[in-house]
Fold this protein.
Amino acid sequence: MTSLTDIAEIVIGVDTHVDTHTAAIVETTTGGVRAEITVPTTPAGYQELLDLADEHSPLRAWAIEGTGGHGAGLTHLLEREGEVVIELDRPQRAKRRNGAKSDPLDAIRAAREAMARPHHGTPRTGQERQALSVLLAARRSAVTAATAAQRQLFSLTIAAPERLRAKLRDRKLPEMVEIAARFRIRTGWDVETRTTAQVLRDLARRAQALQDEADEHEKQIRAIVRSWRADLLTETGIGPIVAATVLCAWSHSGRVRDEAAFAMLAGVAPLPANSGKVTTRYRLNRYGDRQLNRALHTITLSRQRYDQATKDYTARRTSEGKTPREIRRCLKRYIARDLYRRLENPPLST
């Protein structure tokens, strides 16, 4: 899809929030605003929005910001109704006159931005994709909290009473957690020792519980990845977490138009920074899906260590004067291309 004017008479821009959605109906030919409405984020509110759209034209498209967040409920309903939905998760910065901002203005800007874009993305879909997204978020939170508890335990151990510190001295952090989780509080200890032992034990048990939760999420992630795209797990450097991250960003065949767009989505496509006679300058791309970028970075580091072809490439580029950072950037771009082709052309099942 390259122009909304070819398929639609109106574009409905939607500015999404937790409790309400504000929509604006904009003509594709003139850019004029036909109607505006604010509805609650309930099935009745979504139906009210659909009824208003039916009053104007059946040839329409929806431009929604946050199709995977605040706008997920509306997006799912529209897809079930066969509507054309355009994803505007990361819209271009609007040019606001005198700083003007309101929900109706943002809805109008969403519609007009969709009409101005040369390419349009469709929302991420699929039950497997959504399940992986939820599990990844839960696991990430558990790992972060477990790490914070372990660090706090280590910090408190430094100033702990000697009878407790002696049990944890010269131990690695995982071993410290195991020992502290088994602390037994003695009634004969002074208040400082009793309190410190209780806190260290609580922190250790919290870290263990959170790690167990993260491990359980990872098992579920692995099961979904194996049932959906087990071929990814055969690639060097790709485990269940990396595979799930890649699948969540890709979503389904056809959503990303080509491998260059996938590289841009991952933030590994260099941005030209040419001026005058300088035509070979590029700027680091700090945009895109940072979780996907991190997944590609993990694959790159793993292959530089374990994959012979990648080792040979690294040695050759090093001899040409490239820095380690520049080599990793090149590898991430190549890996993005290879992943996109594999995702779009899955192996035939036997």
Residues 60 and 105 are 20 Å apart (CA to CA). The chain has a mean pLDDT of 89. Residues 191-229 form the longest helix (39 residues). The two ends are 34 Å apart (CA to CA).
